[in-house]
Amino acid sequence: MGHGKTSYVCLPCRASFKQAHPGRYDRARVCPRCAGPLIHVGAAFAPPRRRDLAGWRTLSLLLHAGVRFHMSCCGGPGYRPRTPGEVRERMAYAKATGEPVAQALVRRDLSW
Questions:
Q1: Fewer CB within 10 Å: N-end or C-end of the chain?
Q2: How far is residue 48 from each of residues 7, 30, 74, 103, measured CA to CA in Å?
Q3: How confident is the model at residue 75 (pLDDT cuts 50, 70, 90)?
């Protein structure tokens, strides 16, 4: 039985691709549209629509902070912010509390 597929993203093209899981000796994946590098985001990823610029901006902030969308024991990646406002709120929380940004971004409830 073959392995499942996982998602890769090209941020400049605002495109998502399902490909086989990376192997030990795989080379870096490239976008078929622009030949730029693809970012491995995980199997539980649901991309925003291509015209949703705010959604892609939010996704870019999450990916640059090191947040990915891998499956957890309960079947999903957990909470991920969907709007730039939610990201700003969590960034302010991280700055105020000293919590690492990646942890603050995936926190569902903010307790100030």
A1: N
A2: 13, 20, 23, 22
A3: low
